[in-house]
Amino acid sequence: MKVVSQAIGVIQTLFFLVSCETPQEVAQRELREELEARERAQAGSMRLYREGLSAYQAGRLEEAAGSFREAVQSDARNVVAWMYLGAAEEKQGRHLEAAEAFEKSSSLLPDRYEPLFNLGSVLESVGKYREAIVEYKKALELSPDGLEVMENLARSYLRLGENLEEAKRLIDRALAAEHRPEWREWLGEQQAKLEKETRDERGH
């Protein structure tokens, strides 16, 4: 028994010597494991995003939103999943959830105008025109020639009945670049109305 216990003690000592890691090795192993876990999470998130995108394009919005939610839960930095989550929520009339998703995507893409534009569109759709204007103006700073931004910003000014000179300037710029018939018609109507109001004011 003594020989056996001695052998076990030798084995345990050798195992300890082999498995003992220096603090630097421990840190490196933990970093490697963290990176591997992050890569797995990102891969899973993109798989869920692709499933959501397929459902979104097929018009299965609730299913799509569920996949996008799972995608951002797996990887909170999956900005495309946040963007499409906002779009899916907006199409289902869940404006608060859509706004939250677009705000998150904006924080992840501070140099892109699209999340700000989308957030402005949600706010405008629920009648929060002043808040929408704030987001549209920020979007326009990032995309000075953004046609849809100019149009939506002008429309929000008109709905409030405020800053009409700026609205007309935006409409004039948009009309020079717009090719879609329905938008050209709308812009032309608004331009004519604003010019008439200006003439009437000068006539008084």
Can you describe what's shown?
By secondary structure, this protein is an all-alpha fold. It folds into 2 domains: 20-103, Alpha Horseshoe (Serine Threonine Protein Phosphatase 5, Tetratricopeptide repeat), CATH 1.25.40.10; 111-204, Serine Threonine Protein Phosphatase 5, Tetratricopeptide repeat, CATH 1.25.40.10. Helix content is 84%, strand content 0%. It is elongated and about 90 Å long. The N and C termini lie far apart (116 Å).
Characterize this entry briefly:
With 204 residues, the chain is mainly α.
Throw out a few tags for this protein.
single chain, 204 residues, mainly alpha, Serine Threonine Protein Phosphatase 5, Tetratricopeptide repeat, 2 domains, 10 helices
Describe how the helices and strands are arranged.
Blueprint (H helix, E strand, L loop, with lengths): L1 H18 L3 H35 L3 H14 L4 H13 L3 H14 L5 H12 L3 H14 L4 H14 L3 H14 L3 H23 L1
Helix pairs in contact: 2-3, 2-4, 3-4, 4-5, 5-6, 6-7, 7-8, 8-9, 9-10
CATH architecture of the largest domain: Alpha Horseshoe
Relevant CATH superfamily of the largest domain: Tetratricopeptide repeat domain
User: Helix amount, in percent?
Assistant: over 70%
CATH topology descriptor of the largest domain = Serine Threonine Protein Phosphatase 5, Tetratricopeptide repeat
How many discrete structural domains? 2
How large is the radius of gyration? 28 Å
Q: What is the distance, rounded to the nearest whole angstrom, between the alpha carbons of the first and last residues? A: 116 Å
Specify the structural class.
Answer: mainly alpha
Order of helices and strands: HHHHHHHHHH
Beta-strand share of residues: under 5%
Largest sheet: none
